[in-house]
Amino acid sequence: MLPLPLPLLALLVTQAGCGLPALAADRPFQPGETLRYDVTWNGLRAGETTLSLGAGGAGGLQASLEAHQTRLGANRFAAWAWMSGATLRPGPFSDAQEGWGGRRTTTSHLDGSPNVVRVDWRIGEKVGVNAYRRRPEVLDFASAIPYLRAAVLAPGDGFCFDVVGATQHWTVEGTVGAAEPVATGAGHYQALRLSGSMRRSDGQGGAVPLRLWIGTGAGRLPVAAEVDSPLGRLRAELVAVSGRG
Prior knowledge:
Helix content: under 10%
Largest sheet: 15 strands, mixed
Strand content: over 45%
Number of domains: 1
Structural class: mainly beta
Order of helices and strands: EEEEEEEEEHEEEEEE
Number of strands: 15
Number of helices: 1
Radius of gyration: 17 Å
Strand order of the largest sheet: 8-7-6-5-4-3-2-1-15-14-13-12-11-10-9
């Protein structure tokens, strides 16, 4: 599958006053939680994705994401991030992708320079370094969903941030919509719909529309996500929850 499961997440220019929403006082998750999703491509089953949270060093959390899709050729993606337990901001982040184009790995340094995000990459036997101008708010593919789950979200609120993953640096912008019913394999939920788009920060390609539904219940579960492309729609739906106390 494409590196979202929940890739979730747009614009080249951050608008004045736009950024990450503030965090709520309480966290809706705990170490040991695992969420599993079925993934479809244009309505046909294409693979599965797993999001997990574990205890990290220095009082932090370890967020991981694994995705496997077979419909468009076998492809596996995995990502790991350390997050501060207090701020949920990420530090070291790495990912690996196998399938299209061979094996690709990246290591992103999000806790270094206040002005630049450094991404070390390897594609097959080639190695290199990318540097991107750092905007105030930067997350990664593994930490973005936990952060949004723990944030204060209200219909009409806007958000924007940068996100790194799969050798690229993206800019994300969106708006929180009203709560609506969402039916998944794990049950029926009322969930806020976050709608937005993402765009590569190097200016290549167009805006990619995306949507994420976050439950309004105590667990603030991310129950579904969609990403649109010229080739069709990728959708992930929650099918199982484990490790929740």
